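Re: beginner question about structure tokens

> Can someone show what the tokenized structure looks like for a real chain? I only ever see the sequence side.

Sure, here's an example I had lying around. Input first:
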Amino acid sequence: MHPILADWRRLLAYVLAWELLGGLLAVLLAFSGSFTWTAAASLAVPLAAFYSFVCLGAFWVCRAAPLRFRGLLGVAGAQLSAAAVSASLWLLASRLWAAALENLGFFPDLIASQQRAAPLLFGMGLLLFLLAAALHYMIVALEESRRAETEALRFQILSRDAELRALRAQIHPHFLFNSLNSINALIASRPEEARRMCLLLADFLRRSLALGIRERVPLAEELALAEDLLAIEKVRFGARLRFAPRVEEAALACLVPPLLLQPLVENAVTHGIAQVIEGGTVRLEARRGGERLHVTIENPRDAGAPGGKGTGIGIENVRRRLETLYGREAELRLHPVGDSFRVELELPAGAP
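And the corresponding structure tokens:
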């Protein structure tokens, strides 16, 4: 559909602009000496309104002869041909309208005046159509620019979604690999604990899969999933692993990306508790400050242990997901200090 016809406000502005041109044409006709001011206005203003709709056809001529697909001669030829046809139609309409006004007795000799002004009318018809064509080339360019922006945005969204799916897909295999190794180690020496770990792992995977398909989840559900993960790890580490959450009530309803805390908690166990002989406590704090959510996870570590400085893929995974979802609106800060390792997470507090 023509972009001007798609909105009545655009159409009204377009017709009003042509009426102004009709007023200018009336001035030219009056100064030519063949028309009185009243006759010139009575002929020119209605003709301008008529020609405004004729010149809408320039849009389809511009679409058929785009600037990027043809040479200058091809475009000029197409537009001049369309302008000549339109100007001839405009001239014929002016003759018929002049005859109608004269026959109704309003303006004697108006037909003769129209005939004397025919070259001027035809020339104005050509010029006005070419101006309309230039305007429509601008409209076509803007339309194509918006379409290109829409396509670019669509591909950007698809790319972001693909990256998020890939990042989510990295989470379960990594944790599942560690859990299965733990179960394998427990089967011979502690079969009952191995069986219990299997049941806990099944419940954990069921819940995490349900959360993973959602765009955002309340922090309370993320915390429950993190506690399920720690329950699995506690089978392996026993009293060496302790968990101390401290979460403000206002933070529980904040919406966060699903499976956000799991890699951080898993990292605290794998690169922290597991490296310390006496174990330790994973501390998790969450609070809401205005429109921001602050989450801190802290764990002991053996700074001198081989690989003690590494953080695995979990933290990098979280960092990339936050960059994809929030850009600069979210921050992930690491503080490895002495025998402790602290991760600070700050992101927008999504409304429930």
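Each token stands for a local structural state, so reading them left to right follows the chain. Strands lie at 217-218, 241-247, 255-256, 280-289, 292-300, 331-337, 340-348.
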